[in-house]
Design a protein that fits this description.
8-stranded mixed beta sheet; about 300 residues; alpha+beta
């Protein structure tokens, strides 16, 4: 969270697998009900409805503004950041983003979606919040994670943002992003998990829980049978090799440029790829993009003299 005048800037990375703020990360899942559910640890109450946050899995959708799920998840993200500051009322400016090649087309719709309610009162984790959403801005996903350090990008660089649902690529030459060479592909960690489940059923006739798959992708190992683990690792390595094939398809050459990897999918590169540590830089901070949104919003508002 950043502050300018009387407004707090809260960066939110609306991922397909996880929602991230500058300081928090939680699963992108929400279940709505008319009555209070049994388990209420992450319960959000709004408009007389009950929302279990972080439960279930949000299906991939190219248009995040088609239902209320991401809006409710946004309220939960804001509450988590405000709770860290021990405040429950605030004027909030939302800094968010979209995949690189979707920004120009979807920016207005997503911004209006986040601004649909000016004053919002709700309860999250038994704390009442009242916020005034005074503005919002939408920035390019992935690029935001390196925007504050753009001065370090000398020569030719390839930025690779691997999320749960998409992989975003952007060439940066001498600190300047090349808008003619940016790409978005549906090739994130979720697709890797789907392939692992398929191979586990094909080879071992076994269903592997999502939490175990996630643990292996993050850490490179888990406490399961050795043959099962070998199958998962083999599949993950094959999938990660596919990432580099796609990179090369977009003119990535490790001898001519550095590769900067951001996003939760960086663990795939770190754990399952062969690469040169001097030519590939992996940012392990899953909240880096949300922090970048806050930085870019602060720059935007500062240029306006702090006016929202």
């Amino acid at each position: 969270m950043r502050k300018i005048n009387e407004t707090v800037i809260i960066g939110i990375d609306h991922g397909y697998g996880n929602m991230k703020t500058a300081n928090c990360c939680f699963q992108t899942g929400v279940i709505k009900s008319d009555t209070e559910p049994t388990f209420i640890s992450d319960l959000l109450v709004w408009n007389d409805k009950y929302y279990s946050i972080g439960v279930g899995h949000k299906e991939f959708t190219a248009d995040k503004f088609r239902d209320e799920d991401y809006y409710v998840l946004t309220l939960a993200a804001i509450a988590r950041e405000l709770r860290r500051e021990r405040i429950a009322e605030a004027k909030v400016f939302i800094a968010a983003g979209l995949p690189l090649t979707w920004v120009s087309e979807q920016k207005t719709d997503f911004k209006n979606y986040l601004l649909q309610h000016g004053d919002v009162s709700y309860t999250f984790r038994n704390t009442d919040y009242h916020i005034q959403i005074v503005g919002a801005e939408i920035y390019p996903q992935g690029f935001a994670a390196v925007a504050e350090k753009l001065g370090e990008f000398h020569g030719v660089n390839m930025l690779c943002d691997i999320g749960n649902g998409t992989m975003n690529l952007l060439r940066i030459v001498n600190r300047k992003p090349d808008a003619q060479r940016m790409f978005t592909e549906k090739y994130g960690t979720h697709q890797c998990a789907l392939l692992i489940r398929e191979q586990m059923m094909k080879v071992h006739h076994a269903a592997l829980d999502d939490t175990i798959i996630t643990e292996i992708l993050k850490k490179g190992t888990a406490d399961i049978d050795g043959q099962y683990l070998a199958t998962v690792i083999k599949t993950a390595k094959e999938y990660t090799a596919g990432i580099f094939r796609r990179l090369r398809g977009h003119e990535y050459d490790p001898k001519l440029m550095k590769l900067y990897v951001v996003g939760g999918g960086g663990c795939l590169i770190r754990n399952f790829a062969d690469y040169d540590d001097n030519r590939v830089i992996i940012n392990a901070d899953i909240c880096a993009t949300a922090k970048g949104y806050e930085y870019m919003a602060l720059v935007t508002l500062s240029r306006k003299g702090g006016a929202v």
